[in-house]
Amino acid sequence: MTNSKSGLAPRWVLYALLCIFWWGVWGFLAKLGSDLMAPLQLQVLFTMGMIPVALIVLVRAGMKIQTDKLGAIYGILNGVLTGLGLLAYYSAMGRQKAAIVGPVTSLFPLITIALAFLFLRERVNRVQAAGIVLALIAAVIFSK
Amino acid sequence: MDNWLFYTSIAIACWGAVGLLQKLGTNRISSQSLLCWVSIGFLILVPFLLQGTTILNISVQGLLIGLTGGLANGLGSWFLFRSLESGAKASVAIPMTALYPLLTVLLALIFLGERLTPLEWVGVLAALISGVLLSYEKEDQLNAAEVARSAKTHATK
Questions:
Q1: Which of A40, A72, A91, A126 is most exposed by smallest CB count within 10 Å?
Q2: From CA B114, how far away is CA B106, in angstroms rounded?
Q3: pLDDT by residue (tens digit) across A2-11?
């Protein structure tokens, strides 16, 4: 494990903060876009916008993609479902405040935990259990 | 149920399933390769989307917002990836990056003038903290996945 320091914080902290920054900005832009155009249109532009990043990843991987059949199927399904989720996200953003839709949609690991419990026999740890309680509180508040 | 909540639930269901696919996928291929296949999944959707719409009538402002949104999302994923590559513990970095909606909230309050009622604030804070807690996986859980993956890789060699 490398712990290269860049000034004040380890490099990974800097990268994690940049991740938060760009994802946070993405949520804000999703709101601006949803107020301006239809979810289908926004998703087309969104896909075009992320192509440069996908290309960088491809180049860094030496232009080689591992072609394990099941791995590829999981990946493609992942992309399709993410896209469908985004369409719903934009629809929600067009109807409600970004300050609410952003945090509430970030509860999605709840479903991952449930699925991983059912299909992968993964245990729910205590921290996650506390998260589930808070998610339920948020759900009750917003479903009123 | 309000309309927005219906759509939010669909997004949560889709992305929740994506989380599982990500676990299954990275058990078989590298996260770089997975990201490439995910992008192909995105591209596959485009022709279907274009059957129901056109992007020819979108204003320049709209184009910029949409394209930058895609870029921002891609860069976010990229930096999470780089963070993990640079020695971040997944059990720390992933819950940390789950804080991203906090920035969306701040931007919406500052630039869009959105205001929340006290009850909405409670809900938003509960959701924000919950998002962080839910994405916490113990290091040994993550290591178990790692071991399972390398065992599989060796088995196929």
A1: A126
A2: 9
A3: 455 556 788 9
CB contact under 8 A, B129 and A131: yes
A16 Cβ under 8 Å from any chain B Cβ: yes
Distance from CA of B144 to the nearest CA of A (A): 10
ipTM over 0.85: yes
Residue-level pLDDT at B139: 73
Q: Which of A13, A49, A57, A47 is nearest to B29 (CA)?
A: A57
Residue B61 in tokens: 């402002």
Which amino acid, residue A8?
L
More confident residue, A98 or B149: A98
CB within 8 Å of A109: residues ≥ 6 apart: A128, A131, B16, B19, B98, B131, B134, B135
Q: Residues B135-155: what's their mean pLDDT?
A: 63
Which residues have CB under 8 Å from A40's CB, separation 6+?
A87, B49, B52, B53
Q: Which residue of A has its CA nearest to B105?
A: A99
Q: Based on the number of CB atoms within 10 Å of its own CB, is B108 exposed (0-12), middle (13-18) or buried (19 or more)?
A: buried
Across the interface, do B12 and A111 touch by the CB < 8 Å criterion?
A: yes
- Going by C-alpha positions, the residue among B117, B128, B9, B96 that lies closest to residue A134 is B128
Contact A122, B104 (CB under 8 A): no
Q: What is the pTM of this model?
A: 0.89
Q: pLDDT by residue (tens digit) across A44-81?
A: 999 999 999 999 988 988 888 899 999 999 999 999 99
Contact A26 B40 (CB under 8 A): no
> Which of B5, B15, B140 should be substituted to probe chain A, the one whose Cβ sees the most A Cβ atoms within 10 Å?
B15
